């Protein structure tokens, strides 16, 4: 008869339950049906449910739906979770998958999944799938969106959820116990976390140098000589800000490594953690470097358009050709080009797909040796530029270039420190420290030789 027939059908395909018939519930139900699962929706109004529900799914009240499956996806906002409390009996021993996200970080004292577990202590709560969107679920997993993260206390419950995820075409990563849920709930809210500090530095430096140069070059000229050269803001000023910020950020990218080496040298051991600020700084070196590359790129573009500018074309002067100036001008341009070429190489090798193909030694050769060489070339390029500009020009006074000198201090310091580090005797000591051969460390305190950072 009819009933036997439907029982047989449900016996063949494993049944999964979805609470909530909203956007996410419907998309998830559709994917589950397509993957060959039987889907039972649990809804507050099972009889007046919308026509949007995927074809082939059953809709029941929450209690009845819960009894029909072992695995229940909770596609309902956290605010409404208390409807589950009266269902405690039906939910006993079931696996509840918490899919929920919050609108902002630390919106609630405990993670949504932990809250759910406290409401329904008899069930096994698994956090997961919350990094997907309803939209991507409907379209099926794409390359960029294949990974789902799960966590929970019970291994069996997680296994059951992972099996479903794999059948839906995702790869699931078990992140551990339910205490990780908060971290998973923060994932969708993250906004370029490693980029935040480098971006702030870039914006801060750009703004500072922009206003400094605005006052120094344009307002100063206007006040003292009542000369209006405000048009220079667009290209000349931008083309000063870009290389300055780029050079400083490149130095900031190499400074922490140098500082870390000196710290190890001073402490005489590698078995102690770096201070927090240094750790954080080391972790955003890649972003600092890439932003520096971006500014260098802008500087190149701005420089390339100089010959087609009206202003340059207009003051097409005819003076005596000076060989020395020509040499100096060409060398500084050439150094800039070489520096930029290496800069681009550094940027390319920092891409995960490229750096994965390099051995550790190749990677550190490029990022450290060639990196410092890049810094050296760019610094030399800047020095030569200044020499051309200030020393050989009669219109400039000795006090003209403080802004320019300012941006040279940092790279020069980094390079000098690096030079000190690669002198043979210091280098040998550092190698000894890094290989863990410390003077009598084992005799002093055996614990000293236990690495703190595994
Ligand atoms: N939409 C998305 O792309 C994603 C959503 N999520 C999470 O999934 C959850 C659901 O999101 P979404 O589907 O977009 O939300 P919707 O508002 O579209 O749907 C929520 C559903 O929950 C049910 N519901 C609402 N109020 C109550 C209540 N008081 N008691 C019981 N059930 C109720 C309703 O189903 P019914 O009327 O059938 O009872 C409703 O359709 C949220 O926690 C969200 O953070 C996570 C990742 C992505
Ligand atoms: Cu330059």
Summarize the structure in short:
This protein is an alpha/beta fold and 454 residues long.
Task: Walk me through what this model shows.
- By secondary structure, this protein is an alpha/beta fold.
- The protein folds into two domains: 2-189, NAD(P)-binding Rossmann-like Domain (Rossmann fold); 193-449, no CATH class.
- 56% of the residues lie in helices and 8% in strands.
- It has 19 helices and eight strands.
- It has helices at 2-12, 23-34, 62-67, 88-91, 112-119, 134-138, 155-167, 181-186, 196-225, 238-267, 276-283, 285-304, 310-314, 323-349, 352-355, 360-391, 402-421, 424-434, 441-444, and strands at 15-19, 38-43, 58-61, 71-74, 95-98, 124-128, 147-152, 171-174.
- Strands 3-2-1-4-5-6-7-8 form an eight-stranded mixed β-sheet, sandwiched between helices.
- Strand 1 (15-19), helix 2 (23-34) and strand 2 (38-43) form a beta-alpha-beta unit.
- Helix 12 packs antiparallel against helix 14 (323-349), helix 14 (323-349) runs antiparallel to helix 16 and helix 16 packs antiparallel against helix 17 (402-421).
- The radius of gyration is 32 Å and the shape is elongated.
- NADPH dihydro-nicotinamide-adenine-dinucleotide phosphate is lined by residues 20-25, 43-44, 75-78, 80, 83, 99-101, 130, 133-134.
- Residues 15-101 form the Pyrroline-5-carboxylate reductase catalytic N-terminal domain.
- Its main location: membrane.
- It catalyses: 2 Fe(2+) + NADP(+) + H(+) = 2 Fe(3+) + NADPH; 2 Cu(+) + NADP(+) + H(+) = 2 Cu(2+) + NADPH.
- The chain crosses the membrane at residues 201-223, 243-266, 287-312, 332-358, 403-426.
- It is a multi-pass membrane protein.
């Amino acid at each position: 008869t009819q009933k036997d027939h439907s029982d047989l059908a449900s016996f063949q395909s494993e049944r999964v339950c979805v609470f909530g018939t909203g956007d996410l519930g419907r998309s998830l139900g559709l994917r589950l049906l397509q993957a060959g699962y039987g889907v039972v929706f649990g809804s507050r109004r099972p009889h007046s449910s919308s026509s949007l529900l995927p074809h082939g799914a059953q809709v029941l009240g929450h209690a009845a739906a819960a009894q029909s499956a072992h695995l229940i996806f909770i596609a309902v906002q956290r605010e409404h979770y208390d409807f589950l409390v009266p269902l405690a009996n039906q939910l006993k021993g079931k696996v509840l998958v918490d899919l929920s996200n919050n609108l902002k970080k630390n919106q609630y004292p405990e993670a949504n999944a932990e809250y759910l577990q406290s409401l329904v202590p008899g069930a096994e709560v698994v956090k997961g799938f919350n990094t997907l969107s309803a939209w991507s679920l409907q379209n099926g997993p794409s390359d960029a969106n294949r990974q789902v993260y799960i966590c929970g206390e019970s291994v069996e419950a997680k296994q059951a959820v992972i099996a479903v995820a794999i059948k839906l075409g995702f790869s699931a990563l078990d992140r551990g116990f339910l205490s990780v849920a908060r971290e998973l709930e923060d994932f969708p809210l993250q906004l370029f976390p490693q980029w935040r500090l480098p971006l702030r530095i870039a914006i801060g430096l750009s703004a500072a140098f922009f206003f400094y140069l605005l006052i120094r070059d344009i307002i100063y000229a206007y006040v003292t000589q009542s000369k209006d050269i405000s048009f220079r803001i667009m290209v000349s000023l931008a083309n000063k800000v870009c290389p300055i910020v780029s050079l400083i950020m490149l130095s900031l990218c190499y400074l922490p490594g140098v500082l870390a080496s000196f710290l190890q040298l001073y402490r005489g051991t590698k078995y102690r953690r770096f201070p927090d600020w240094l750790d954080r700084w080391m972790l955003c070196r890649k972003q600092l470097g890439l932003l520096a590359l971006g500014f260098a790129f802008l500087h190149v573009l701005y420089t390339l358009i100089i010959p087609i500018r009206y202003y340059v074309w207009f003051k097409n002067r005819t003076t005596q050709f000076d060989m020395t100036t020509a040499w100096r001008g060409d060398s500084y341009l050439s150094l800039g080009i070489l520096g930029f070429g290496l800069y681009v190489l550094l940027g390319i090798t920092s891409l995960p797909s490229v750096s994965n193909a390099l051995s550790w030694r190749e990677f550190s050769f490029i990022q450290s040796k060639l990196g410092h060489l890049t810094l050296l070339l760019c610094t030399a390029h800047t020095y030569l530029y200044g020499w051309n500009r200030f020393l050989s020009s009669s219109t400039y006074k000795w006090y003209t270039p403080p802004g320019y000198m300012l941006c040279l201090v940092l790279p020069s310091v980094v390079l000098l420190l690096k030079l000190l580090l690669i002198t043979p005797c210091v280098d040998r000591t550092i190698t000894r420290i890094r290989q863990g051969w410390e003077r009598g460390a084992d005799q002093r305190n055996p614990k000293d030789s236990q690495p703190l950072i595994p």
